Every structure is written in structure tokens, then in C-alpha cells.
Amino acid sequence: MIGTSSLSRTNWWLLVLRGVLAVIFGIMAFIWPGLSLAVLVLLFGAYVFVDGIFAVGAALTWVGRQPRWWAMLLKGILGIITGIVTFFWPAITALVMLTIIGVWAIIGGVFEIAAAIQLRQQIDNEWMLVLSGVLSILFGLFVLIFPGAGALSLIWLIASYALVFGILLIAVGIRMRTEQPSRPHLAA
Question: Over its length of 188 residues, how does the chain's per-residue pLDDT go in tens digits?
Fold first, then answer.
């Protein structure tokens, strides 16, 4: 059986790649703030779809090695479904899209926190993953509570969220890569 330290060291790049995709998405949204809501919907759909694929990939590498691999799998499946919904219904109303984004961010944040709790025994500074989960939940709540925000405000809010979330994922991935293999593991 491969140890969790070895598992973390071999899959660090999935978190880094997810983080890089989030940062690229955030930068694109800042560069082109005049995007129409329809383009934003498609861009968001592409981002969550690809992010979901990588989350599923990470989860599948954890099967039999991590007891709570299913949390990341569910987050990935949710991202894939959210991406597909946005592709098949691009003319979706702003309110419905905001609701989908808000719910996706809240559920995804809960799963990020669950993953951080599991990883606290394998890596130091798991607080960065907890912070990304809390950020996701707060972002989702904001979007659900204030759905009347203007399209430009929404684009900048999503871009800011993606940048911070992406940077945190990159930091966690790099931390996992540099983790010392001889670190003792605590019992679950």
C-alpha cells in the first residue's frame, strides 16, 4: 500500500493545475470586464467543468488510499454537472445563474474544508485549504444574498474569488510537493 505521504507527493500537481486554471480564469475576467453575461456563463461553465474533471481525477487516485476520497469525487461531479448545465442552457437567466454559482461555491467550500480536515494529518499548513473552503462558502452566500449585483460587479467578484482560490490551491499543491516523506503520520 502506498503511504499517504507518497500519495500527496505524487498528486500535488493536480491542485497546482486547478489553481493555475482558476488564476487564468480570474485574470481573463479582469482583462475583459465588458463580457456579456452569456459569455461569462460559458466561461464559468468551462472553468467548473475542467476543474471538476481534475477533482474527479484526484479523487480516483485516492480510492483505497484515503478514507474520505469521496468528498473530492462529489465536488468534481458537481463541477462537471454545473459545467454541462451551463453549456446546454447558455441563455439561462442571471438570477438562476447566480443561484447555481452560489450553491456550487457553498457545496464546493464544504468539500474543500472536509478535504483539509482529512489532510491535516499528512501536511502542514492545511489552513490554506480550509481558508479556500471558507472563502468559497462566503462567496456563495454573498452571491445568494445579493443577487441584484450588476454584471460588472459580478464579473469582478468572480474574478477576485478565482484568483484568491487559485493562489491558495497552488500554495497547497506546492506544499504537498515539498512535504518531507519521513514525517510521522497520526492515526485517523
Answer: 444 455 556 778 888 998 998 899 889 888 876 665 667 778 788 888 999 998 899 889 888 887 778 888 998 999 999 889 888 877 665 567 778 888 988 998 998 888 888 877 776 777 888 888 899 899 888 878 877 665 567 778 778 888 998 998 898 888 888 875 555 554 44
27-59 b/e with 16+ CB inside 10 Å = b? eebeeeeebebeebbbbbbebbbbbbebbbbbb
- What span, in angstroms and rounded, lies between the C-alpha atoms of 169 and 18? 7
pTM of the model: 0.52
| Grid coordinates given for 58 | 484526484
CATH of domain 4-177: 1.25.40
The count of residues in the chain is: 188
- Using alpha carbons, list the distances in angstroms from residue 172 to 112, 120, 126: 12, 12, 7
Domain residue extents for the chain: 4-177
